[in-house]
Amino acid sequence: xxxxxxxxxxxxxxxxxxxxxxxxxxxxxxxxxxxxxxxxxxxxxxxxxxxxxxxxxxxxxxxxxxxxxxxxxxxxxxxxxxxxxxxxxxxxxxxxxxxxxxxxxxxxxxxxxxxxxxxxxxxxxxxxxxxxxxxxxxxxxxxxxxxxxxxxxxxxxxxxxxxxxxxxxxxxxxxxxxxxxxxxxxxxxxxxxxxxxxxxxxxxxxxxxxxxxxxxxxxxxxxxxxxxxxxxxxxxxxxxxxxxxxxxxxxxxxxxxx
Length: 258
Prior knowledge:
This protein is an alpha/beta fold. It contains 9 helices and 14 strands.
């Protein structure tokens, strides 16, 4: 099993999972060439992917999907309403376009989408089930709903959005309308909100957490890690044992192999 965050941030997102003999890419928000290069660096050929899953249609999550899927004839899974707004939909062969409803079985992995609150057509997070393990991805959400909280319960690994530090956002260079959008219920999750969520979910004895989708203007990896770690420690959690925190970056691969 391996989880590799090929890239994560406001300018692009792509996450690779290898669970058993099944290889899945979640989002492809950078160029196909860069994804191929990053995968090669961890010993994976893009043509060996079993599927690409799309969380939503924003450019930083889909900009490389069309070229990657066409070049390697990869199946692409997205919600029906997401397909409706993807400009490259008709350029892909019908065999490559897969509608994702309640769940999908991809190789040895069961994929279950769940709704998140974001300003897109039908944005989702994903639960991936493989054997007795559960992996959760939720990287663009403005508010934590009961559905999100339940989806994260008893996971073995979670990739969660820690988009911004509230003070950095307030003092930062973004115009007021954009700050309001980021902080809204359909915007992005702050470090503090992610920390509170992680401190309140039902957990297994050991959980790996990737702090993802950081704003390059309004956050820092070490600051996101510090905020989450301090909140978990306050709860009495043994950080590094009960919960292992992993930082992610917009310009290099970070991951976990077991």
